[in-house]
Every structure is written in structure tokens, then in C-alpha cells.
From TrEMBL:
Any one GO molecular-function label of the UniProt entry: DNA binding
UniProt DNA-binding region: 35-54
Annotated HTH tetR-type domain residues: 12-72
Pfam families cross-referenced by the UniProt entry: TetR_C_3 (PF08362), TetR_N (PF00440)
Transmembrane segments: none
InterPro entries on file: Homeodomain-like_sf, HTH-type_TetR-like_transc_reg, HTH_TetR, Tet_transcr_reg_TetR-rel_C_sf, Tscrpt_reg_YcdC_C
Name listed for the protein in its UniProt record: HTH-type transcriptional regulator RutR
PANTHER family: HTH-TYPE TRANSCRIPTIONAL REPRESSOR SCO4008 (PTHR30328:SF54), TRANSCRIPTIONAL REPRESSOR (PTHR30328)
Source organism phylogeny: Bacteria, Pseudomonadati, Pseudomonadota, Alphaproteobacteria, Rhodobacterales
Swiss-Prot/TrEMBL GO biological process terms: negative regulation of DNA-templated transcription
Top-level taxon: Bacteria
Alphabetic keyword roster: DNA-binding
């Protein structure tokens, strides 16, 4: 049993190593410019190892894309587990900001794919993304109907949250340039997170206790 567990852990570590390298290569070169050899070079593993875990470049690419989306899905659990919009939307914003901090390359891969018309993952968008979005729209609309937040178009609210939070990943270089050429430190990230959350919640007429503010 220890040997079997050890082999499984080793496999998972190798897979993680490959995915991190692929994320970086796809973010910088795009799907068309990336090669399995380049990914192997960045990962420090033989090309044969890459093909052992992922038979084609498209398989690897789709895994990278699905990984970042799965992480975003986990961030959205606040919608389903919260008692109201401040906790649900506020928690979602916090989680999305943290993902932009910790997974900027994955976000850049997703952004590049979508900006090019999603040639590889269009089926994923039409299936998983559409279903997820419609479900969150229903939750937001319920909060509006219950008088817990100002009336707004839930779809455009989601678009706004995505664009603001993912900006910190997709335009990382621009933000660092405007930050004196330095990456955001812990205090910078906390300030960014609290400001983005406060601005959006205030615009929705809710405060951090989930109560409607006086408009």
C-alpha cells in the first residue's frame, strides 16, 4: 500500500509540474505558438514524459483551461452557501481576487483563448459556462426580488465582476508598471481586494452585513 500511494503521489507531482509549465507556455505563446517540446523544456522533463501524461497538445491545453475554470467554480460556491448578497457576492469577489493573485497564468490562457474566438474550448463555453452563468443569474435575481439589493441586470453584474477581478491577472504587467515596477505585496492585494469589494457592494446598495444601505 505505501508503494502504491507513493507511486500515485509521484504521478500527481509530475502532472502538476507539467501543468504549471504548460500554463506558463500557453499564456506566453498561445495555443498555436506552444509546442510539447517547449513545455518539456520549461518543465525540466523529457518530452516523452509529457506525452505519457497528455497524448496531444490539445489534451494538455484543455486540461489547463478546465483547471482554471474549476478553480473559478470553487470560488462561486459562496453563491450557494451564503445567506445573502453581501456574503455571496462579497465572498465571490474576494475569492476571484485571490485567484488572480495566485493563478495569473491560468487566467491569461483563458483570456487569450476567448479573445481568439475560443477555437479549442467553444464546446466548453457553450456547455459548462452557460449552465453555470444561468444558475448564478437565478441566485442574484432571487436576492433582487427579495429586496436584498438594488435592481440590476445580473448578467452584466457578473461580467463586471469578472472583468475587474481578472484584470489583476490578465494585465499584471501593467499593474506592476504602475506600482513602480514592483509586484503587489500582501498589503497592496488586501487594499485592492477591499476596495473592489466595497465599490461593487456599495453600488448594489448593500453593505458588508448584507443589509440594504440607504440610497
Amino acid at each position: 500500500m505505501p508503494t502504491r500511494n507513493g507511486s500515485k503521489n509521484k504521478r500527481l507531482e509530475k502532472e502538476k509540474q507539467i501543468l504549471l509549465a504548460a500554463e506558463k507556455v500557453f499564456a506566453e505563446a498561445g495555443f498555436g505558438g506552444a509546442t510539447m517540446q517547449l513545455i518539456a523544456d520549461v518543465s525540466g522533463l523529457p518530452k516523452a514524459n509529457i506525452h505519457y501524461y497528455f497524448s496531444t497538445k490539445e489534451d494538455l491545453y484543455r486540461r489547463v483551461v478546465s483547471n482554471i475554470f474549476d478553480i473559478w467554480l470553487q470560488a462561486a460556491e459562496s453563491f450557494d452557501e451564503s445567506s445573502g448578497p453581501a456574503e455571496g457576492i462579497g465572498g465571490y469577489i474576494d475569492a476571484k481576487m485571490e485567484i488572480s493573485r495566485r493563478h495569473p497564468m491560468g487566467s491569461k490562457v483563458w483570456a487569450s483563448e476567448v479573445m481568439h474566438g475560443a477555437p479549442v474550448i467553444q464546446d466548453y463555453l457553450e456547455d459548462v459556462l452557460v449552465s453555470w452563468t444561468e444558475g448564478r443569474i437565478d441566485v442574484i435575481q432571487r436576492w433582487i426580488d427579495d429586496g436584498l439589493m438594488e435592481p440590476t441586470n445580473p448578467r452584466h453584474l457578473l461580467y463586471m465582476i469578472w472583468s475587474v477581478t481578472q484584470h489583476y491577472a490578465d494585465f499584471q504587467h501593467q499593474i506592476e508598471t504602475l506600482n513602480g515596477g514592483q509586484p503587489l505585496d500582501d498589503a497592496d492585494w488586501q487594499d485592492a481586494k477591499s476596495n473592489v469589494r466595497a465599490i461593487i457592494l456599495r453600488g448594489l446598495g448593500i453593505d458588508d452585513t448584507g443589509n440594504e444601505t440607504d440610497a
